[in-house]
Specification:
Shape of chain B: globular
Order of helices and strands of chain A: HHHHHHHHHHHHHH
CATH architecture of chain B: Orthogonal Bundle
Largest sheet of chain A: none
Number of domains of chain A: 1
CATH class of chain A: Mainly Alpha
Radius of gyration of chain B: 24 Å
Radius of gyration of chain A: 24 Å
CATH architecture of chain A: Orthogonal Bundle
CATH superfamily of chain B: MetI-like
CATH superfamily of chain A: MetI-like
Helix content of chain B: over 70%
Largest interface: A-B, 96 and 96 residues
Structural class of chain A: mainly alpha
Number of strands of chain A: 0
Oligomer: heterodimer
Number of helices of chain A: 14
Distance between the termini of chain B: 40 Å
Amino acid sequence: MITKSRINRAQITGLLLPGLLIFGMFTVYPIIRLFWMSLCDMSFSSMLIQPFAGIMNYREVFHDSTFWTVFVNSIVYTLVTVPGQMALGLFIAILLNGIRRFSVTFRVINYLPVVTSWVIASLVFRYIFNTEGMLNYFLWKMLGITSGNIRWLDTRWSGLSVAMILGIWKGIGWNMVIFLAALQQVPQDLYEAAEIDGCGAWKKFVNVTLPAIRGTILFALIELTIGGFNVFTSIKMITGGKPAHQTDTLLTWMYYKAFSTGKFGYAAALSFVMALSLGLLAIVQFRMMRNRDA
Amino acid sequence: MKSKNAAKIRAAVIRYLLLALGTVIFTLPMIYMISTSLRPNGALYEYPPRFFPRWEALTLENYDYILHQSKFYLNFLNSAIVSVSTIVAAALVGSAMAFVLGKFKSKGTRLLFAFIIITMIIPGTTMIVPQFELATRLGMVNQLWGLIPFYVAWVIPFSTFMIKGFMENIPGEIMEAAWIDGADVWTVYSKIAMPLASPAIASVSIFNFLTAWEEYPWANTVINDNSKRTLPIAIAGFFGQHQFTQWGYVFAMSVLTLIPVVLIFILCQKFFVQGLTAGSVKG
């Protein structure tokens, strides 16, 4: 191995170092620090004095009824938006996979919501769902389905629904692109074999397509679950957690506790529980999909 | 044979109809945003609301107002500075890490890579409290440049992951030849690996640009001064400023903010798809 001797260890380290320093300082250190903060009685005003408090913050989080409200909100948001995006994204990908003309045009247009920033998309949805807005006018005066203006943004589930509709609308394009790429890699002869066996479109989808793209489904499931719990900007812009934190999610509530009430310890404990649970959830999801493989 | 053809045509028609319907749903909110930005501010609360403004009422007055505020140019410039700095820094450190992790496989580098990837499971916003404390200690609060290291650290895992896959595919013989010629690690990285991985770096950079260009929670937390605001917090601030939201101004500013994004997206479409699918298909 002449090559090995030429390889300069110092230069390898030199290449790694800048990235590792930035990553270590601004990502890894905060993760560790987060855990420590969650064990301290910390507030915004007393950043320098941080008496150790054990599990006090965790106890406070779990005994807080608002925490359970926002916890349920985050779970519902994720349970609705993740399957919603995946199913619609896959459906559009299947449609696109079967056409020749305009495929790229459709793909570009369907991807536009993904590149629209969260702040802007949220404001547009807020405007549409305004009490005196376009949607209410359309439903009431034009279609006659409703009998008055609905205050979409002012109740818990309707407010959350607006955020969920936005989440699905904005996420379909991403799912479409990755599922389309996966579909294009499914061997064509599998479909031909299934056709010879007399399988219809639905049977082909269940028996050929789904097993073949399982890796991509797993990838999307893990990514989107993290994304679902990461929902923040849309809630802040659309309902702002109103009324009385009924539409807050885990992160907007954590943010409120930290930066509006100054309870850094509480916020850190909540964040740490979230990070840990998502890590475990990702492992479970990974295991589940792997086991079905065998 | 004939009936089979007819069935095929019918299937194609249904596909196109469904896709067209999808396109309407995808674009309707954006069209509404643009149409709202083109009507006079006073007509925004007109009742009945109109999807399209009256033809004779079309106006550019909202754009005129936004473009005559020096604040907007400042916000735009701030966003551009932060985004460009982020993508340049991320491309440099990310490709260097990807080169080492992809081409010098050992127990140590494998472990390091696994660790970097695992951190991607944690939603970024959960770290906002310790990051805020860190930024305060380092004097980075309310500093435009202070955003950059956080954004770079944020995009490093994805960038490294993407570029590493590309680095691994560089044939070993090319590097072997360079070693025999007496090239050192630095030369191989800068003269061979980085140029060969440039498609992956380009693709990663587009994503990093979008991330930095639209980032809201962190910038909103650490930036206070009007003059240091990036576009997303400027738009959000505009929205909350008055009791009655000036939707025309908000959406005119939004459209102006989206123009560079949509342009980049349409021009770099190919890189986009490459970047998106690199991680997913391998599974």
